[in-house]
Amino acid sequence: MRELTIKDAINEALHQAMEADPDVILMGEDIAGGGGRDEHPGAMDAWGGPFGVTQGLATRFGRDRVMDTTIAEAGFFGAAVGAAMTGLRPVVELMYVDFAGVAYDQLLNQAAKVRYMFGGKQRVPMVVRTVVGAGFRAGAEHSQTLYSLFTHVPGLKTVAPSSAADAKGLLLTAIQDDDPVVFFEHKRLYMTKEHVPEEAVPIPFGKAKIVRAGKDLTIVAIQRAVQFAQEAAEALAVLGIDVEIIDPRTYSPLDESAILTSVAKTGHVLIVDESYPRCGLATDIAALIADQGFDSLKGPVKRLTAPHTPVPFSPPLEDAYLPLAPKIVAAARALLRA
Amino acid sequence: MITDSPRFEPFSPDPHAVISESGEWIAPFDLDLDDDTLRGMYRNLVLARLIDERLVRLQRLGKTSFVAPGAGHEGAQVGIAHAIEIGRDWLYPYYRDTGLVAAIGWPLEKLFGQMLATRADPARGRQMPAHPGSRALNVFTVASPIASHVPPAVGTALSQKIAGKGDVTVCTFGDGATSEGDWHAGVNFAGAQGAPIVFACENNRYAISVDLNHQTGSGGIAAKAHAYGMPGYLVDGMDVLACYYVMREVVANAREGLGPALVEMAVYRYGPHSSADDDSRYRPAEEVAAWRLRDPIARLRRFLERRSLWGDEAEEGLRSEIAGELDEAVAAAEAAGPQDVDTLFEDVFAELPAHLERQRERYRLARRAAGEDG
Predict the structure, then answer these.
(1) A76, A262, B67, B324: which is deepest, by most CB within 10 A?
(2) Residue B334 and residue B344 in one domain
(3) What range defines the domain where residue B240 resides?
(4) What CA–CA distance (Å, rounded) separates B50 from B48?
(5) Chain A residues near residue B123 by CB distance under 8 angstroms
């Protein structure tokens, strides 16, 4: 069976979406060649974004559809809104989610609100692809996850795949969606491989994945934390603790019932997220369980996140910062008194 | 397409005008508008002014919470309205452009429905007053964060460029907007891409209380076009025909693929920034009075009178006709009644997601328990 990395799965999804629908265009910094010099053919494929995710698309579909933009995120985010309103389906690349601040108003007040402010008479089918995550030795301004900044806003959908097949299927759904979607790609997961179907099969939003079934403890894991939780589950199995791992995959919409069903089965829950804890996804999911799953709980709802500090650059500090598997094992044992 | 288009010089030191203060035609080209069109423009100027007066009255009566008076801007707004193809081109107005959306023929009942947030509002009461928008007429719903509509306008123009049908976008804003990062990001992107868009600045010299010299060191707005590789035109915004002719030329150029332009229309706002402002505290009364003497309505009227196209009787008839239309529209907008609370949950997404469905149900139950409808 054919295996692809997340990076290649995303590239394949973009190829297939652009092939299937001429209205799909890509906009971003350095996503085509970076140089904008058509007379220099090598420039067509020189970059493909900092991680090379869009490589080959400019050659295949031309620069009208794969557009190197000016270095002004507010400009091309806003332009994507206006283009999405008038027939196109722009997929915009935000080089790092850390740069969202300079473009945030276009998402917060335009993309997310146009449908509502038009009384439902106008759609904005755009996708923002962006790179998140610590563990790349890149410091405080290239390592954040910031899922909650977008999930907080009514009118935006948010997606954070943790595997290659999910990345492909969810991106296809994002591009076909008639509402704005923010699609988070974790830089430390790009090279993760698995079998990915060759055909373009969209995966619906709002459907969590049970990554591992178990009966003693539910771990709700956010994007890269799925990987950490899988490592931890192996170690916990040795101790006789049978872990169930839920990957919500999309945060707006959130599959609340999958989480509540699992908690009803195990009675114990740990939520793992490498984001800041205050007002973050882990906190939001904890509140959901406290509010609607309280009767099935046999213990406290526990969160394991990064500390509420910026992401440090120093390698030992960054390693200490992340909710890696040993911390999950310790938290699970404390929770189950095992 | 306009083949015999008069040519205006970009970056002129003085504003372009085609009729003098006393109403004489002073342009070096012939007027090519028929009498009905001229009277139609005049009607739209008066309509905009009377809507403005009516809105201020509605606000004082407590029927709407906010107005952004447009009196003094009518020449620019009506000039723009007559220079575009309504329903084909896209318009990205700003919050002082109620006169502009009226001039393109947005039904008055909807306009007042928007101001009063009743069921007559096609946007279902979601926007604050003075924030019109119309999907049917290709009018973007007005954005409150200043200049944040500029990049989306550029995106619409890029989409029009890719579609290749010769449609264009016109984006308006005040002088203050030209300081925003979004404005520069959008205008620069349009220049880099050769997008078919016209940026039209209704420069009334004040951003609330901050005067133009504290807003920019450029001396004016048109000059900024230099930096973005597009022509910039300075126009007398109190001369509706000058606004129309300059806009007609740059819109035609954009339609033919010659790229974007920036038009600065020198206007003045007679009233306060909004119903929450007292302009007498920062503007000398003499300055306001001097600009009022240059009124765009009076100027076009003198022009029409010189051509025997207008007189006191016509004026009286027009004003009472419009007043009647406004009475009717306000009454219809009010009679439509308030929006249903259930609509609160709709249109956040294309489809109602499960969490909003649950919240809607909770609200219904609470309203029922409180003895309200639901």
Answers:
(1) A76
(2) no
(3) 35-338
(4) 6
(5) 117-119, 121
Q: Are residues A136 and A216 in the same domain?
A: no
**In degrees to the nearest 10, what's the CA dihedral of A93, B142, A148, A268?**
-130
Whether residue B256 is found in the same domain as residue B351: no
What CATH number is given to the structural domain containing A274?
3.40.50.920
Residue A202 within a domain: no
pLDDT band of residue B1 (cuts 50, 70, 90) is very low
Closest chain B residue to A253, measured at CA: B353
CA distance A110 to B186: 14
Q: Tell me the residue range of the domain where A294 lies.
A: 209-337
> Would you say residue A272 lies in a domain?
yes
Q: Contact B151/A82, CB-based, under 8 Å?
A: yes
Residue B7 falls within a domain, yes or no? no
Instruction: Show the CA angle centred on residue A160, arms to residues A155 and A166, nearest 5°.
Output: 115
Distance from CA of A238 to the nearest CA of B (A): 39
**pLDDT tens for the 338 residues of chain A, in order:** 899 999 999 999 999 999 999 999 999 998 987 644 566 666 667 778 889 999 999 989 998 899 999 999 999 999 999 999 999 999 999 999 999 999 999 999 999 999 999 999 999 999 999 999 999 999 999 999 999 999 999 999 999 999 999 999 999 999 999 999 999 999 999 999 999 999 999 999 999 999 999 999 999 999 999 999 999 999 999 999 999 999 999 999 999 999 999 999 999 999 999 999 999 999 999 999 999 999 999 999 999 999 999 999 999 999 999 999 999 999 999 999 98
Cβ contacts of B186 on chain A, cutoff 8 Å: 74-75, 78-79
Count, in order, helices (H) and strands (E) of chain A. 12, 14
What is the radius of gyration, based on Cα positions, of chain B?
A: 21
Q: Which residues of B touch A78 (CB under 8 A)?
A: 148-152, 154-155, 182, 185-186
ipTM above 0.95 for this complex: no
> What mean pLDDT comes out for the span B212-218?
93
Same domain, A180 and A311: no
Closest approach of A47 to chain B, Cα-based (Å): 20
**Domain limit, last residue, from A195, A222, A238:** A195
Statement to judge: residues A252 and A312 lie in one domain: yes
Asked whether residue B366 falls in the same domain as residue B324, the answer is no
| A200 domain-assigned | no
Q: Do B151 and A76 touch (CB under 8 A)?
A: yes
Same domain, yes or no: B349 and B269: no
Residue A244 inside a domain? The answer is yes
Closest B-chain CA to A85:
B156
Residues of B labelled as active-site residues = 269, 273, 282
Q: Which of residues 101-140 of B touch A (CB under 8 A)?
A: 121-124, 126-127, 131, 133, 135-136, 140
Closest Cα in chain B, distance from residue A225 (Å): 25
Given a contact cutoff of 8 angstroms between Cβ atoms, the answer to whether A37 and A47 are in contact is no
Tokens of B360: 């809607």
Residue B2, pLDDT score: 47
Query: What gap in Å lies between CA B65 and CA B60, rounded to an integer?
Result: 9
Number of domains in chain A: 2
Same domain, B320 and B357: no
Single out the residue of B247, B262, B260 nearest to residue B81, CA to CA. Answer: B247
Q: Distance (Å, rounded) from C-alpha A314 to C-alpha A138?
A: 9
At residue B301, the pLDDT reads: 98
Q: Is A102 exposed, middle or buried (0-12, 13-18, 19+ CB in 10 A)?
A: middle
